[in-house]
Design goal:
The structure is a single chain. The chain has a seven-stranded mixed beta sheet, with helices on both faces. Strands 4-10-9 form a three-stranded mixed beta sheet, sandwiched between helices. The longest helix has about 30 residues. It is an alpha/beta fold.
Length: about 375
């Protein structure tokens, strides 16, 4: 199960610099972690999680295998993308294939780097891309209405499904026609699942990545503050990062990296914050397995039940699921590992309806 975060942005906002830093990071990680694959436009990176090293030490694991997240470098966008301008069709097709969007916004002034519109205006930049996504959604939804209305006139289950889909579409259209993205539609958890099946581009969760100059890397600037305020108003997330600094950090030896970060007043690389923010944006949780061979982190969406979580490791685990021996990370760490937690009565046997929590350390029992 792979989760993908698409990196989008106008030309010359630092999108490629940021993506290249991610792929440099992924290449460096390949020395320590197995199965690190990099395609031309995909950087697959380990999700930083200090809990994994603690578990490996306690379980005396020979290796650690972190969970991973993919970032996809999406073709640049120009105004008119929804009508196929520039690489518009490719841009929209690529966005359909990702689970969330990391929207890189230019928040720096540099006379040597031209801006596509001639002025630094991060909010206008955001609206340019948002508008193209909304226009593509409008066209997509309006095409579906007539055939759905015909189906909705019946009295069978197909007609009922068509009426429910029409209701969702009309609610999305009402927002889109006001110039608001579909992700702002208020709906229940059940309706959210139905909305996701509509394949709307402006429904995907968004993280704004404020690309600032080196001097603003620790505290941001006037441009990034505008983006953060915009994100706050729409309930989105925003992080401040200097792609230039990240591209320099990515190629350093770990010891040099720490010294560099300390010198500029940062505690962790911005890319680590980006990876974690992408993970949170996708509403993912991590559970662990730990033993002599390896300590591993596994990714599932929040709300996943134990059998499906087991299936992430191997389909046989899900098919033959009996129960899951489960210890919280806090108990595992505080009590010195599995034996200590077991002795203290902190190991639980969970069944098929158990919803996996972030930090669970699990061992699956299954029938072959």
């Amino acid at each position: 199960m792979g989760f993908k975060c698409g990196i989008v942005g106008l030309p010359n906002v630092g999108k490629s610099t940021l993506f290249n830093a991610l792929t440099e990071t992924a290449a460096a990680q390949a020395a320590n972690y197995p199965f690190c694959t990099i395609e031309p436009n995909v950087g697959e990176v380990a999700v930083p999680d200090p809990r994994l090293d603690v578990l490996a030490k306690l379980a005396k694991s020979a290796a650690t295998v972190p969970t991973r997240l993919s970032f996809v470098d999406i073709a640049g966008l120009v105004r008119g993308a929804s009508k196929g301008e520039g690489l518009g069709n490719q841009f929209l097709a690529n966005i359909r294939e990702v689970d969330a969007i990391a929207h890189v916004v230019r928040c720096f002034a540099d006379p040597d780097v031209t801006h596509v519109t001639g002025a630094i205006d991060p909010i206008a930049d955001i609206e340019t891309i948002e508008t193209e996504l909304m226009l593509a959604d409008l066209e997509s939804l309006e095409r579906r209405i007539e055939p759905l209305e015909k189906r909705a006139r019946g009295s069978d289950k197909d007609a009922k499904d068509a009426r429910e889909t029409l209701d969702l579409i009309n609610r999305a259209l009402a927002l889109l026609r006001e110039g608001k993205p579909a992700r702002l539609v208020e709906c229940s958890a059940e309706e959210k699942r139905a909305f996701s099946r509509l394949g709307l581009l402006s429904w995907k969760p968004v993280l704004y990545v404020c690309n600032v100059d080196e001097a603003s890397a620790t505290g941001g600037n006037e441009y990034s503050r505008k983006v953060e305020e915009r994100a706050r108003q729409e309930g989105a997330a925003a992080i401040v990062i200097s792609a230039k600094i990240e591209s320099e950090i990515a190629i350093l030896h770990p010891q040099e990296r720490e010294e560099y970060l300390e010198a500029i007043g940062l505690t962790v690389p911005g890319l680590n914050r980006l990876i974690l923010a992408g993970y949170q944006l996708l509403d993912l949780v991590t559970y662990f397995t730990a033993g002599p061979k390896q300590a591993a982190a596994w990714t599932v969406t929040r709300g996943t039940k134990a059998p499906q979580a087991a299936g992430v490791i191997h389909t046989d685990f899900e098919r033959g699921f009996i129960r899951a021996e489960t210890i919280t990370y806090d108990d595992y760490a505080a009590l010195g590992g599995e034996a200590g937690a077991r002795e203290a009565g902190k190991m639980r046997l969970e069944g098929k309806d158990y919803v996996v929590a972030d930090g669970d350390v699990m061992h699956f029992r299954f029938a072959t």
